[in-house]
Amino acid sequence: MAIFRSPFSGFSISNTASGVPTQNSVFTGETSAVPFTRPVTRPTAATLPPPPASGTSAMMNAAQIQSEIEIKAQQLANQMMSTMAAQNQRASSGRVFTRFEAGTDIIENQKTFVTTGLWSGNAATMSAVYTGSIQTAASKAYYYDVWNGTDATAEPQFAVAWGNRVGSGSSAAGTLNDSPSRAVYSQYRLLLLNPTDTTFTFGDGTSSDSIFALNFNRARIKDKLDPGNWELHLTNLNGSSHPNYVYTGSNVAALKTNFVSLVDDSGDTQEALTLTAAGRVFNIVSGTLTGGVYNSSSPHYYGLAYPDMGVIVLNGNALNTNLGFNIVSGSNVAGDNAWKLYTSISGAMSSDPLTRPFQARNEETITSTHYFVRVKNGEYNFSNNPTFVTGSVGEFSQATFIGDPKTYITTVGMYNDRQELLAVAKLSQPIQKSFSNEALIKVKLDF
Q1: Which one of 35, 185, 249, 370 has the lowest number of neighbouring Cβ atoms within 10 Å?
Q2: In a domain, 436, yes or no
């Protein structure tokens, strides 16, 4: 967990003259202070009491002397307190900088968990997807970027890839003794599995050398994919109509006669949480966000979800069996299998954009530091705004300011230990300030 040290050690207040604010005035400079001289009073010979008498009279005189000393001491203490109060009042009235008290004014490392729609513009649903013509043919041998549109404002949302543990279904031409499918499988194995695991094993206990991966764009997921808050629809393909070795490119089409909706089982309290080097892992099963897992006692497993990594891994064998993907598996053959996952997703969307969109949300942890700006009644009641005074001798512009000046706080300046201005916090509306009221302003700094 990262610990953020507060960069601010104090604040200043920007304000305007009484009435409608006209021009903000940012205060800078050193703290104003009035030198304090402690008054010293020494008793003189004339004020000393006479020598004490003997006996009972001496005891009475001693008590009287003690009483007079206490009275004098109280008078001196009252005088000193009055002097100090007056000096503090003069100092605070002209204050342009106040130092934060670390123990009471600054609260650090406040965590807030926020979930928003995952797609561009914080949208929670996406009902149409596209591939980009700007993507090179060489990179398409490994993955396809999927966009939310075709115009200049479109942004990549996720990528789809296909991998095979032994490198089948892709051509090794132009590579150094490694095919794209093997490179993809190895990459996700190293990223998601524990060091001792060599293959992906799914919820039904089966392992597969063939996987499809859906990788959310980093800008979209922010910190992580929100588990239990995504739903993906797939449709069947026409794989049974073509021989395996030619089922690629333009031969691939969506039939739209059979559909599967996928969710994770993070809401299933009967399933123990699985943790790996990649964080949390949940099973991908058939179901919906509103209806939950289909046949929860014996679900249909389709893959694994890694929300902390923003990756969905689908079992290629399951898609072959249930949706006719007919994955090209020949050696040194450019099967273009990743295109089949894209075709299945886009086909399901186009069949009914309202009921079969891709729904997803992200999670973000926001770390904040709260600064409590405490403006006491005797502070920041004057302004160097030109409208505050008038005339060559600097008289108050309003006669009512005499003895009772009023200003409006509009901005809080945040300073470091060297009293250098680092940031400003703007108030949504001015706050009136005078000797008869105080202000408490909370400045929130998010990381």
Answers
A1: 35
A2: yes
